[in-house]
Fold each of these.
Amino acid sequence: MKNLPFLVSFIFCYGLLSQSFHETHARHAAVSLTNFPECMDRANVTSAELRKIRKYPEERIKIINEDEDFRRYGCFLACIFQQNNLMTGSALNSHKIAEFIDVKHNGDLDAISFISKSVELCSSIIEETDDECNAALSFKVCMLKAMRARE
């Protein structure tokens, strides 16, 4: 149960690398990842870079601490979010995100409540951001911090 919020973050941003993930989670989460390779190309990120972020907690900590430049990763996230109507330009679509959360956590009111509040907070932080890459990365950083605080 402690890892449930991280799972949402994982699904949103990290677990997008394998074909089985694509087939299983796209079907159950109403999220399409058919443009995943396009987003990698558009953001100029490799699957190895994405795997590294997904696999190693210290890489996520670097993102949280802004120890390195993760702009390309932010552009990748923006593309994935936009392709799934979770983001338009640099603005997050709170209604679509709420639908995603409800589908993934059907019946788990604690997880839905926590994640919904985190999404609301993190969305408000990026409201003034016009750059889609910065907005997506800032949203991700905020969500990672919320998940870490809950653990």
Note: The beta strands are 87-88, 91-92.
Amino acid sequence: MSWRRAKQAATGVAQQTGGTGYCDAAKGEFGGVLTTLPEAPKLSVLGIQEGNPQISVSIPRVINSLSILVCKLERVLPAEHVAFELVDGNNKSPLTTLKLISGCNLLFHSSALALWTCFVQLQDLEINSCDALVYWPEKEFQSLVSLRHLGIWWCDALSGYAKAAPGEPISERSQLLPKLESLTIRDCASLVEVFNVPASLKTMDVCECPKLESIFGEQQDEPELNQGPSADGVASTAVAKLSSSTRDHFLPCLESLSIGQCDSLSEVLNLPPSLIKIDISCCGKLQFLSGQLDALQKLDIWYCQELRSLESCLVQFSTLERLSLYGCKSLVVSLPDGPQAYSSLGELQIISCPGIKSLPSSLKKRLDSLDYDDKELDARYEVGPSFIVGIQSSCGNGVFLFC
């Protein structure tokens, strides 16, 4: 979120809630560039943009009155200069929205944990361009029992969970954020694994994380030991396995999954049957998908050149409304057939997928009921004259003639 949009949103909420107002430390809306916050016991919305780094010292003093905090600090004091000890962890802050746009490393210092324990009512958290976020902040997240929306953008140092030292037990990863409904992670250059997402999750959007290897995190039933280097010099790694009972209840609320430009992701397994929409694009090493997609309505897979098969995901597709496969050159699949297959289909696109040799009879029959603009196919699938297909995506654009 840009500073302008954040300010507009925060000011609007202040007006709706009757809060004292919006403090902009950079533009001096309280009279010049501020070095400390004014006395405002009813202040409900606070925006801090750049300004004097001394302003960050005042955050703990006002946190118990705020409902929204938008913070963008290019220069901050070291965390030891901020009086986090003044925060009473037993006082539960009314804060519902926290947006850390940049330069907010001090909130991830060990001394700031007391502040996070106050955030039990926080529902919307955005972390943007935070260099101090190297591992998933498990301790900070433990208190966020009301959080529903989490967005993480441009945190280039974030890699995943902290690693256990050789010979030490791998601690069981506690389930965090029990009410989380939407998760967005974008442009995190070092991210290897997503944290163990909770069963409450409904939408997930992960894009431009080139080192990402695990999309759902490890779902471990029991902790294992990291054995360190073995006798032959090869490090042994604990591999998490889902028990059948865990798999049956894995992400039962997830409805929408979007993955884009994650070049190291090779597989996405155990997709839950609750999914309604899947959009995967430009994942050059993705080879395998698996799951039981009984409720799926929209399936878009573009430019995944190494994707080999979808058969472990395919059901009768009686609920499918849109099927779009484009540029998946290694995909070899027999699309499902049956009396109820494609009965809800309204849009179809299969382009540059040479491994799909033919269409099933039920899908061919459905083609007759689709409008010309709702079907885009390589000419070998279509009886009749060739036609022009326009393609636009995040990976490129153009107009192609298929004959």
Note: Helices lie at 3-17, 59-62, 113-116, 138-141, 244-248, 361-367.
Amino acid sequence: MERSGDSQFNGSQSYSVDGGTFTVKSSSLPQGGSYHAYDLALGQNGGTFYVDINALTSGGKKWVFNVSLPQGSTGVDISFFCINNSNRSISVSDSYDSKTNTYHLHFSTIGVSNELAYIELVLPGYPWAGGASGGLLVPGAKFYSDKPGYCFLAGALIETEDGEVPVEKLVAGQKVMTYDAKGEPAGLQAITWSGCKASVVQDTGHPDVDKRPICILAGAFGSDAPRSDLLVTPEHCFLIDGMFVPARMLVNHRSIFYRDDLPRYEYYHFKTAGHAIICANGALTETLRDDISRFSAGSRSENENELVALAAPLCRDVSVAKGIHDRLDQMATRAGLASMAPMKTLIGNPDLHLILANGERVDPLRVNDRWAVFSIPADQAGAHIVSRHSRPCDVVGPFLDDRRELGICVGEVTIFGADTSTVVTEHLQGTAETGWCQRAEGELGRWTAGCAWLDFGTTTETQGLLTIEVLQAGPYLETAPVCLVERKAA
């Protein structure tokens, strides 16, 4: 059957796709009115619904896309793109309406006005029917999710009672060999669940966030570990020195590196009665944990949000993680493997400034020691604190498990008027959310994520001064961006 090309939202009422991709960019959605509804017809070849949610900032608005599928359609693949959700303003949720037999998927954000805005996708049937009558995801259909995976790509050889079996061929009831945290055999355990999930690679500039698969070359962990090249997702853990270490923290761009040539891929996972250590391609690794959600045709866990006891402790000590990372990197260097990492240049200047609600930029009058002083006009209720931002794991190394986007660490903030002074504490009390990072244990101030809204708690009556205590700033990658700020809604 002939397939139609890709289609993009342009304000029309109705759209159709047959095997192509329908793209919705939130920046192109109409802003007038609070409710908009559209129709999307998929053909026999199905299609992909792709949502770029980054510019969805207008609170109190709703855009609904009603999807229809003909009998026998291959279904719909769903993916969405989110650059940065460090302030937790973006979320994805779903619900099923048994009265109308429709599945509702919500891509939502909380804007600067603290009002919810969302794109809703309404699909026919119950998606977890596994191909039964009325089910959306027929066998072979895929749901592209933002949830992290702890899984193998096809070809991983799992040690079972019948020898090594490709992970994609494992089934419930089959027994796999397990090990203890010392690497000693611990007996066979039956597989209680197996599944396949599809992932679409994003392009945020952060390969771990983009969910690019990681290739671990033969011998990367030692002489026979793994025995052959192994592909896994970034969060998948390996047992090294008695601890679980995520693959993303081991990347050295020599023997362990991200694959850039797989824009979409399927990965496979399986469970045992409890979290277990198993062997893949001769390397000790893990079965699926129950602290992630799984969306796969015909398979859904009954306790997908339940945390389970780990079969070995997670490596949380940065010095230990660095030691493991450096050891593997040195092994790769001795093996003659050249680094594929781009050159990294660090800078210290944060380019700190304010953006007022009307979009006006205000540079500091002066920066003395750790204090930045700004002139603030009258009638201001707040301002954005804007700077460069980078992730510690990118600046220091992947072994540092801190993937927050850090701008500057803000301590005391004071507004000085003609004859008054006001201390601003909202950010330190934890009530400020937009653009602020969660405070890590032991941090005296609070980091911005590069663009943080600071509510003054009052409106300035006259022109005055604003002082910001910068407890820490940088270093930043030379390529680190400075956030662009849109005018704040009145």
Note: DSSP finds three helices and 36 strands in the chain.
